[in-house]
């Protein structure tokens, strides 16, 4: 079970899980968050999501391209890369704001989605 105020976030969490497939550290963190949805309120959930490893690091391939979770999943990025270098980015206000806006757009605010549980990959 989970806190009912988190229901709009279920589709966003599901999509986030798909985008993280292959990025095991962040996906593991997301699994931990979803296992504790019954203990979180909305503000805590957002804080936890924005604290995922993938948002604190830069992922760059040998061609100088950065992985952007908003545009593609991690497996697609690594699939077209020979080598991916992960470097610490730390807190980046612009990136955090962009990801926050993306997550909010993925939410089901009108209740049209009937997703009751989250199945993570």
Written description of the protein model:
Helix 1 packs across helix 5. The protein is mostly helical and 121 residues long. The two termini are 19 Å apart. Helix content is 43%, strand content 8%. It is built from 5 helices and 2 strands, in the order H-H-H-E-H-E-H. The protein has one domain. The protein has helices at 10-20, 24-35, 42-50, 74-79, 93-106; strands at 57-61, 84-88. It has a two-stranded antiparallel ribbon with strand order 1-2.
> What does the radius of gyration come to?
15 Å
Largest sheet: 2 strands, antiparallel
Query: Strand arrangement, largest sheet?
Result: 1-2
Strand fraction: 5-15%
CA-to-CA gap between the ends?
A: 19 Å
**What form results from the Cα inertia axes?**
elongated
SSE topology string:
HHHEHEH
Report low-confidence residues grouped into runs of 5 or more. none
Helical run tally: 5
Helix content: 40-55%
Kindly state the number of beta strands: 2
The tally of structural domains comes to 1
Mean of all residue-level pLDDT scores: 91
Structural class: mainly alpha
Kindly list the characteristics that best describe this protein:
121 residues; mainly alpha; two-stranded antiparallel sheet; 5 helices; 2 strands; 43% helix
